[in-house]
Design goal:
Layout lengths: L1 E2 L7 H12 L4 E5 L5 E5 L1 H7 L19 H9 L4 E5 L13 E4 L2 H7 L8 E6 L9 E3 L7 H8 L9 E3 L7 H19 E11 L4 H12 L4 E14 L4 E11 L9 E3 L3 H13 L4 H15 L3 H4 L3 E2 L5 E5 L35 H8 L1 E2 L2 E2 L3 E2 L5 E3 L2 E3 L8 E5 L5 E3 L3 E3 L4 H8 L12 H10 L7 E4 L6 H13 L4 E6 L9 H13 L5 H19 L10 E7 L4 H4 L23 H12 L7 E6 L2 E6 L4 E4 L6 H8 L5 E4 L7 H14 L4 E4 L1
Parallel strand pairs: 1-30, 5-24, 5-25, 6-9, 6-23, 10-22, 23-24, 28-29, 29-30
Antiparallel strand pairs: 2-3, 4-25, 7-8, 9-11, 10-11, 12-21, 13-14, 14-20, 15-16, 17-18, 18-19, 19-20, 26-27, 27-28
């Protein structure tokens, strides 16, 4: 029976395997520090394979480099022996939600998600520290090789201090920030779908370097745009009113066509007025006057003011010119009868924009007559989607409804007030526990800009104030889609020297929870979910989240390094699970990670033959970690024909049962994958 590896993938070895497929002569065998044989790249040979001339020593080339870049790459690729432990009591709708809140170092979390969510994320939005001279950044442990990293990441005495203040007096001011962000973006790219996109908020201080990093990781051809966000609130720290930040957008694969769109400004006010006029049964001519008053007051551009007429259902529409648009050529010429007089209407000087068949279809003109004609209050007529004047002397126009053109391409300059702090205050009874939180209006705009399908996932691995999770739920309530979110936040200890964090610490003490940012993030999402439901009483979408916490592996050291265990400890190590990990759900979620199974699938526990058996999505996976497992129980589970089944390696009542497990499943459920821990 094959054993699960119970650690994240070794991306270095995966990369070497890909090189070996392309250039077999460039991969050789070498001994590691323990004397084990491993594949290694012959870089001199690889340079020659990729060169059109004789390859010699290192040459100058265009690239972004900094002290620590190699260590950052190694850190991104090295495997870790960690896990995600479920926290039911901190979750909302644990058994039914499809959303995740992961508490822990985002570098570890991104590694743990590599198998389960590889190529499955539609959109990533992050708002990392801006590196403005007083930010805290993640201090990663750079190591010499992957083996050491694996051992260190599995030790019991972990370092709790993951954040350091990155001040401008630090000699590695830019380098430390670049190393921190490089490894995380590199891992994040793997998680995106081919149709996925990355959005990164950033300020002036690192915009140039961040662009170079993303160009390297994603490829310059996958750069979409650098959006300038006008926050409308000036910040004066260099003798000028700075009112903008940036949002970088990159595609996973530019070969997959992607358009980014946004709703036209002011539509909410317009539709609110139209709904009021319709409810009051305002006469159409008077209602149109009210619409035009609003347009004039708000100063809308022609993209909206063109749509100033109402049909009998109070639906806004506008007239579109039907003349041939090209000044150097001519369009088709044909006669069009007026629906009232029957006489031919005036033909545009350069001909019609449409072919005759297209015009007739739009006007619903069949067998020489208009199939439907609606007289309007001003004496004009609507025939299908063609407008005619009172008589034949005026050229007709095509009809387009405003709700058909609600959107246009996302603009490279956005003007949105930075009122995220006000939003947080409303949620937390007048108190703001975060510094400069992003507004949900910005996130909702970005979420709506990308074409999402049912169940698409949004990832934010710098969750902070929880704005992304809030925006996902609110946007789902508005457009009826079912986006899911995964947000990751380090349990960063609150700094009580800062006024807003001092208040946050008081809230944590009042609720009896640890005093860290992750706790405030979770509370913001809980309260936001309640607000979304109150503001949208008909909304029945997912407003819960399943809390998972990054922790050391559930498996004892002997599971990973059995050769290092001395003889006298072997009898103590018969149970290869750590003694303080007695919750079988902890083991279950590490198995889900190792096998790459969706972490939000429903989990059900049932007693069968006196043993605790977990069913993940009924037949996606069956797990039993109890001891004394009999052949009868194995047979009963095999008859359920699950896709996967896992047992504790030392859980069988005899060696004979353990030996027969594979044979039983081959007979009763040959397609089931059988493993042990």
């Amino acid at each position: 029976m094959e054993k699960l590896k119970m650690h994240t993938p070794d991306l270095t070895q995966d990369n070497i395997a890909r090189i070996r497929e392309l250039f077999p002569s460039c991969v050789t065998e070498a001994k590691d520090a323990q004397g084990n044989t491993k594949y290694a790249v012959d870089f001199d040979q690889l340079k020659q394979e990729l060169s059109g001339q004789i390859a010699e020593g290192p040459q100058e080339r265009y690239q972004l480099n900094w002290p620590g870049k190699r260590e950052a790459l190694l850190t991104a690729n090295a495997p870790i022996a960690k896990t995600l432990r479920p926290a039911r009591e901190e979750s909302v709708d644990f058994d039914t939600t499809k959303n995740l809140f992961i508490e822990g170092d985002n570098l570890d979390a991104l590694k743990l998600l590599q198998e389960t969510y590889l190529g499955k994320i539609k959109m990533i939005y992050i708002d990392p520290p801006y590196n403005i001279g007083n930010d805290y950044i993640y201090k990663d442990d750079f190591v010499e090789d992957a083996e050491d990293f694996l051992i260190r990441s599995n030790q019991k005495d972990e370092k709790g201090n993951r954040l350091v203040s990155n001040t401008e007096s630090n000699g590695r001011f830019h380098s430390d920030w670049l190393s921190m962000i490089y490894s995380r973006i590199k891992l994040a790219r793997n998680l995106l779908k081919d149709s996925g996109a990355l959005f990164i908020s950033v300020g002036n201080d690192e915009i140039a370097n961040l662009r170079r990093i993303c160009d390297e990781i994603f490829g310059e051809n996958n750069f979409v745009e650098c959006i300038t966000w006008n926050k409308r609130i000036p910040k004066n720290d260099k003798g000028i009113g700075n009112i903008h930040e940036y949002i970088l957008i990159y595609l996973k694969n530019s070969a997959v066509r992607q358009e980014f769109v946004m709703r036209k400004d002011g539509l909410e006010d317009i539709y609110q007025l139209v709904e009021k006029l319709k409810k009051n049964q305002e006469p159409i001519d008077q209602a149109e006057k009210e619409i035009k008053k609003l347009y004039k007051k708000q100063g809308y551009d022609r993209g909206i003011t063109l749509y100033n007429s109402l049909d009998t259902a109070y639906r806004l529409w506008g007239k579109i010119n039907m003349s041939w648009p090209n000044a150097t050529t001519f369009g088709p010429r044909y006669e069009v009868p007026h629906p009232k007089t029957g006489k031919p209407v005036a033909i545009p000087d350069r001909g019609w924009r449409w072919k005759e068949d297209t015009f007739k279809e739009a006007a619903n003109f069949k067998n020489g007559t208009y199939q439907q004609m609606t007289a309007l209050h001003d004496g004009s007529f609507m025939c299908g989607k063609i407008w005619f004047a009172k008589d034949e002397n005026t050229q007709p126009s095509s009809i387009t409804y405003l709700d058909e053109v609600n959107t246009f391409l996302l603009r490279s300059v956005l003007s949105l007030k930075s009122d995220g702090g006000i939003e947080v205050e409303k949620i937390f009874d007048g108190k703001n526990y975060f510094s400069y939180p992003k507004p949900t209006t910005l996130l909702r705009l970005l979420l709506s800009s990308i074409n999402m399908e049912e169940g698409d996932i949004v990832l934010d691995f710098f969750a902070g104030s929880g704005t992304t999770a809030h925006a996902v739920m609110q946007t789902n309530a508005e457009d009826g889609k079912n986006r899911k979110f995964i947000v990751i936040q380090l349990p960063e200890k609150l700094d009580t020297n800062l006024p807003e964090q001092k208040m946050a610490a008081e809230l944590c003490r009042k609720k009896g929870v640890p005093e860290n940012i992750a706790e405030i993030s979770k509370e913001r999402i809980r309260r936001s979910a309640q607000k979304v439901k109150e503001d949208n009483p008909d909304f029945t979408g997912d407003t819960g989240f399943r809390v998972l916490k990054v922790d050391t592996s559930n498996m004892a050291d002997i599971y990973y390094i059995p050769d290092n265990v001395i003889q006298k400890r072997l009898l103590d190590a018969v149970n290869n699970i750590k003694p303080d990990r007695n919750n079988p759900e902890d083991l279950l979620f590490q198995v889900l990670l190792d096998w790459g199974v969706d972490l939000t699938l429903p989990v059900r526990k049932e007693k069968i033959q006196g043993k605790n058996v977990f069913f993940v999505d009924e037949d996606a996976l069956i797990a039993c970690f109890d001891t004394g497992i009999s052949e009868d129980l194995v047979s009963e589970l095999a008859e359920k024909k699950p896709l996967r089944v896992v047992f504790h390696d030392n859980g069988f009542e005899s060696d004979a049962v353990k030996i027969n497990v594979d044979q039983i499943f081959r007979q009763l459920s040959p397609s089931t994958e059988v493993k042990s821990i």
